[in-house]
Amino acid sequence: MQLSEWQDIFCLDFTGLWAIFSQTGRLREDRCGKGVSLCVIINAKSGQCGQDCAYCAQSRISRASIRKYPLLTSEELVRTAQQAAAQGAARFSIVTSGRGVGSPQEQETILQAVGAIRASTPLKVCVSLGIVEQDFLKALAAAGVHRYHHNVETAASFFPQICTAHTYAERLATIRQAKAAGLPVCVGGIFGLGESSAQRWEMAQTIRELEVDSIPLNFLLPIPGTPLEHRQPMAPLEALQTIAAFRLFFPHKRLIIAGGRDFALRSLAPLIFAAGADALMTGDYLTTKGQLPSQDLGMLQDLGLHAAQEVV
């Protein structure tokens, strides 16, 4: 795919997208059949973040009204994971606020939780812990972490407009260090921040160069109190165009539709699977409400699809 072909996708109207869906839907079904992998996340440590990401309610520059609390106990993490497994999830991700988990006590809590979740559930356990050192990454790999999640968020050329507290190079270095530690990586970003279609292409190029294992696609939910609270939401058709473009560019990678999907896609949400999505974040997001797992399971059933265990 060339840049011109990529940009053409973002010019298609609803009728034009159906021709694309015949390709993207087939690519999804060739990979996973009728199965859709469900992921549940937990905001394991909330707020009080020293970073300045413009979209995030937990950052130091946010005025959003959110719950703030220290790292949950290992027991609390395990209990939530067991509930996720009972709701049909295949993956459970432990997510923390802040630049990275550097405290030995916090690291030990997370390692204990990973082991206990793996011992008591069939879940694949993922983590999203920010910028951390190599020794901890190796310990996470040894504990059996399924994937290390660390988004690039957007294109390098647009990143300084979104965050200045750390660099794009630091994000890339963390991803490469996780891979060097033996961890598969889950790397994607957020759309609707104000980036152009060419910058989405730039971001896709970066993700391809990183040779990631799965790609989460998030859509901006403008949260009151954040610098992007007044940004116009992405149109549902544009969200579908974005999913289709990534499926065509990454025919063999897992595409996870994650944060902001219900807000961005609205009534067109079921079409994400025609556009090529083969995985779904279900339940609540970090600081905002999401779809109930029962609602997502009902949508899958209506489409003739079903929740499936993570196999690729």
List the helices and strands and how they pair.
Layout: H1 3-9, H2 14-32, E1 35-45, H3 74-86, E2 91-96, H4 104-120, E3 124-128, H5 134-143, E4 147-149, H6 168-180, E5 185-186, E6 189-191, H7 197-210, E7 214-219, H8 236-249, E8 254-257, H9 261-265, E9 279-281, H10 293-302, E10 306-308
Parallel strand pairs: 1-2, 1-9, 1-10, 2-3, 3-4, 4-5, 6-7, 7-8, 8-9
Helix pairs in contact: 2-8, 3-4, 4-5
Q: Could you characterize the architecture of this molecule?
A:
The structure is a single chain. The protein has helices spanning about 5-10, 15-30, 75-85, 105-120, 135-145, 170-180, 195-210, 235-250, 260-265, 295-300; strands spanning about 35-45, 90-95, 125-130, 145-150, 185, 190, 215-220, 255, 280, 305-310. It is of the alpha/beta class and about 300 residues long. Helix 5 (about 135-145) links the parallel strand 3 (about 125-130) and strand 4. The longest helix has 19 residues, at about 15-30.
Keywords for this structure?
ten-stranded parallel β-sheet, single chain, alpha/beta, globular, 15% strand
